[in-house]
Structures are given as C-alpha cells and as structure tokens.
Input
Amino acid sequence: MTIPFFGCALMHPVHNKIQRTGLTFQPLARIGVPAKACGQSHHARTVANEYAVKRSSRRARIARPVRVRPPDPRDEHFEDLPVSVNASKDGIYFTSRRKSYYKGRRVFVTFPFRSPHDPMNCEYVAVVRVEELPNSKIGVAVHLKLSMNYGGSSGFARERFPESIRL
Output
C-alpha cells in the first residue's frame, strides 16, 4: 500500500530570463509531503485548501446582527436574526439554529441589521457552505451576488456595505 501524497509533484528549477533585463526568474521547488505526516486528514487539508483558493478577499472577525429572509414568497417565510462571525467584502459567515439553509439557497441578507424601521437595504446572496456546529447550531457562509438599496432613489447601492463597517 502506498501513502497518499499531498502536492507530490516535484518541480525542477526552471531559469527564465526576464526580457530587457539581466535578471532570471527561478521559481521555488515544491516538495511532496505525505498526507499522514501533518496530523490532519487528507480530506480536511483538501477542504481547507479548496476554500482558501476560492476566497478573493480577507475576512475580518466582526460580530454584528444579521437579518436573513427568503426572496421568494413561495418559499416558507422566516426571518432569522443571527450574529455574524466574520465578513469580507464578498461574503458573510454567521451561525444560526435554523436548519433550513442548504448549499445553493438564495436569501436576502441585511448586514448590519439595526432596526426593523430602517430602510430595507439588503444583499441578495447565495449560501455556499453549511457546517454542523456544537450545541445544535449550524455555520452558514454566504456569497454576495447583488446589493439593493430601497431607501434611496438610485435603486442599487454602489457599495456593498455601509461606510461604518467597510473592511
């Protein structure tokens, strides 16, 4: 039986000349690491690397109230008021006790949610990850698709988040 390797391809140094300079480019060699050597399972490292590659912006730990509603009146109506764990300019991660989230589901998110009397400024988002957490909670990661601003006359907001919480 062979041990699975994570990044097992070895690359030989390649010397590439940079045009119009006397410099050469020498990429670093990749070294194969056995999957069991690091203490994590191969699947855990693969999942962690998959999400790290997909992220286009850094996340910041920020605990703010979030309002989540379904966009389609045919769906079961709910209004979830969880608290965010972290956020970036492209997405939000929050925890909830509601079990109706699934990958690919579209919802409206108001972030940060201050009061039901505020204008309905919301984001149209897609659920990209749902995780089981302890204490019968779930972690939900959403990716922002469209910003809507019902409070102003412009129709759509130019910025995804208000000035007060820009990351």
Q: What stands out?
A: The two ends are 48 Å apart (CA to CA). The longest helix spans residues 42-54.
